[in-house]
Write a structure and sequence with these properties.
Largest sheet: 8 strands, parallel, barrel
Structural class: alpha/beta
Shape: globular
Radius of gyration: 24 Å
Cofactor: FMN; heme b
CATH class of the largest domain: Alpha Beta
Subunit structure: Homotetramer.
Keywords: Flavoprotein, FMN, Heme, Iron, Metal-binding, Mitochondrion, Oxidoreductase
Subcellular location: Mitochondrion intermembrane space
CATH superfamily of the largest domain: Aldolase class I
CATH topology of the largest domain: TIM Barrel
InterPro entries: Aldolase_TIM (IPR013785), Cyt_B5-like_heme/steroid-bd (IPR001199), Cyt_B5-like_heme/steroid_sf (IPR036400), Cyt_B5_heme-BS (IPR018506), FMN-dep_DH (IPR000262), FMN_HAD (IPR037396), FMN_hydac_DH_AS (IPR008259), L-MDH/L-LDH_FMN-bd (IPR037458)
């Protein structure tokens, strides 16, 4: 059994010339003792050579030099990131827990304010829609977490358009149909689902709740909904997979790594763990400029590395998103699709398709589907909404054979807040709809119970799906047809759109640069 490293020894490496930190994560905490996990085990790493390369700057690391950095590390890094990216010779060893003085977190006035808001949250039975979760999350989340979750690119036109587009689609309900019994269950890529909705991938769940994405996993299992695991989760892939129930269907969202061997290993491991479908993100060769997130870096004096001091072109304004995404490969192209098909038998779905031309290419490349998505408005601003693109893309795919095509699915995400939004997308040809931020805000506000409540709002008796299907005159999803909606105003971007007061109440407008001191 290797010797343990004492806290005194670690504390001697607490400067720029020799910087050791302690990091604990459940995915790393496996004891050398044969009886399995030991949550008390922390690891020591030498990060001296990494200080000037850290996207968030060296100061935040040096703040924890010679100490336990887990609290700062865990929410914004996948738990195995340090294990996978730091050379093995920098893995110093295991900490003697009896010799380490834990860093006591200072409780600030802001912490007290947020805790008071948490204590004053509306009870769950007063939460009536997904907008309510967003309003609570906006109040209780730390400023950096809210900025990361809510931000979108540039002027944030597309994120608002994602929501507004659904308001320009009008129902044409049918009457005098027997709707005493309605059924909104379906199959998504061969997997049973209680709703035509899946939980879309969103990153860094622990910024919002200590249990992160596992809140989604447990709630999805309980209510028969499919979760898409994000590449940039706060929890490790195996933590999420281990939290799933036997036979629970899971999808995987993939950012393709510059090192294809890492990607291959990750994809094949996911398949071995039972993941059913691979959603390859194709609209992010570079992440968009998300100014709410970026402005958080201006307020943080820990941003920027020592070697950048005095330079004029230092990118200190990149925010959390850029800090966690430098590995993404911008060279990803159509020529890579055959390679993906060669390394996995999972369904391959391209996430981020926006045009009929690319939809046809995906079909011809042998993919099993596409997601019409603009990344939640976080990539190319003034891109059209997924639901608007749906009409042209379905029309193009109909030229390739019978429709609906059982071998090729079309999903939509972005701006979905109501069951009525889902039904509009289904009527226009979508196979199912992804919801990301809605469930993210639910667990950020109320944990797993929040996600369960969100699913119940969409699904449960006398709630949104049942009511809307009855009022439309549809007994099951196959009866929701294009003739039930009027989408003629969908392309009228400058036309009159009914204001969505609930969405507008939680939307936080962009701000301008602030003076350092108030006059």
């Amino acid at each position: 059994m290797p010797s343990l490293i004492t806290g005194q020894e670690i504390a001697e490496h607490a400067n720029r010339d020799s910087c050791w930190i302690i990091v604990h994560s459940e995915s790393l905490a496996f004891s050398v003792i044969a009886d399995g996990p030991d949550p008390s085990i922390d690891k020591v790493y030498d990060v001296t050579d990494f200080l000037d390369e850290h996207p968030g700057g060296s100061k935040i690391i040096l703040k924890y030099a010679g100490k336990d950095a887990t609290e700062a590390y865990e929410p914004i890094h996948p738990p195995d990131a340090i294990e996978n990216n730091l050379p093995i010779e920098k893995h110093i060893g295991t900490v003697d827990p009896n010799t380490v003085v834990k860093v006591v977190k200072e409780v600030t006035e802001e912490d007290k304010r947020r805790q008071a808001l948490m204590d004053a949250r509306p009870p769950l039975d007063e939460i009536l829609n997904l907008h309510d979760f967003e309003a609570v999350a906006k109040a209780v989340l730390p400023a950096k977490a809210w900025a990361y979750y809510s931000s979108a690119s540039d002027d944030e036109i597309t994120i608002r358009e994602n929501r507004a587009a659904f308001q320009r689609i009008w129902f044409r309900p049918r009457v005098l149909r027997d709707v005493s019994s309605v059924d909104w269950s379906t199959t998504i890529l061969g997997c049973k689902s209680s709703l035509p909705v899946y939980i879309s991938a969103t990153a860094l769940g622990k910024l919002g709740h200590p249990d992160g994405e596992i809140n989604l996993t447990r709630a999805a299992a309980k209510h028969g909904v499919i979760q898409m695991i994000p590449t940039l989760a706060s929890c490790s892939f195996d933590e999420i997979a281990d939290a799933a129930q036997p036979g629970q269907p899971l999808f995987l969202q993939l950012y393709v790594n510059r090192d294809r061997e890492i990607t291959k290993k990750y994809v094949q491991h996911a398949e071995k763990r039972g993941v059913k479908a691979l959603f390859i993100t194709v609209d992010a060769p570079q992440l968009g400029r998300r100014e709410k997130d970026m402005r958080m870096k201006f307020v943080d004096d820990g941003a920027g590395a020592k070697v950048q001091e005095g330079q004029q072109d230092v990118k200190k304004d990149q925010g959390v998103a850029r800090a966690i995404s430098s590995f993404i490969d911008p060279s990803l192209s159509w020529k890579d699709i055959p390679w993906f098909r060669s390394i996995t038998n999972m369904h391959i779905i391209l996430k981020g398709v926006a045009t009929p031309e690319d939809a046809i290419l995906a079909y011809e490349a042998g993919c099993q589907g596409i997601v019409l998505s603009n990344h939640g408005g976080r990539q190319l601003d003034t891109s059209r909404s997924g639901v608007e693109n749906l009409i042209d893309i379905v029309a193009a795919l109909k030229t390739k054979g019978p429709w609906p095509n059982p071998n090729f699915s079309v999903f939509v995400d972005g701006g979905v807040r109501r069951a009525s939004d889902v039904l509009k997308a289904i009527a226009l040809g979508a196979s199912a709809v992804g919801i990301g931020r809605g469930f993210l805000y639910a667990f950020s506000s109320y944990g797993q119970e929040g996600v369960e409540k969100a699913i119940q709002i969409l699904r449960a008796l006398k709630d949104e799906f049942e009511m809307n299907m009855r009022l439309l005159g549809a007994r099951n999803l196959s009866e929701i047809v294009p003739e039930m909606v009027d989408a003629s105003a969908l392309r009228a971007h400058a036309g009159l759109t009914p204001p969505d007061n609930l969405y507008n109440a939680t939307y936080q407008p962009l701000s301008l640069a602030s003076f350092k001191t108030k006059l």
